[in-house]
Specification:
This protein has a domain of 54 residues. It is mainly alpha-helical.
Length: 103
């Protein structure tokens, strides 16, 4: 009995997915990709400005600000190396990581 209910749900989901326009399905993906890309660029620019501001302005040369620059450099590396790969993973149709490893 339970197996037949699962089959009915699967069949209804498959029929509704086949009727949808593929271009309509891409709109949320495109919006997510644009938002995440914008977030990545803002992160890059903001952290770069922090590093430049501390380097250029002599009043900002303090021990505390050097820690902030260190954090900004770490964020720059995340923005350059991790975020683009995460964006590709997020918007890709096929995921490259096995489902057991994801939450």
């Amino acid at each position: 009995m339970a197996a037949s209910a699962v089959q009915v749900v699967n069949n209804s989901m498959n029929s509704s997915q086949s009727d949808a326009d593929p271009q309509e399905d891409m709109l949320p993906t495109i919006l997510v990709a644009c938002f995440l890309s914008l977030l990545c660029v803002v992160s890059l620019v903001g952290n770069f400005l922090v590093v430049v501001a501390v380097k250029v302005e002599s009043k900002l040369h303090s021990f505390t600000n050097y820690f902030i620059v260190s954090l900004a450099c770490a964020d720059l590396l995340i923005s350059l190396l991790v975020m683009p790969l995460a964006i590709v993973y997020q918007v890709s149709v096929t995921h490259f990581i096995h489902p057991v490893l994801t939450f």
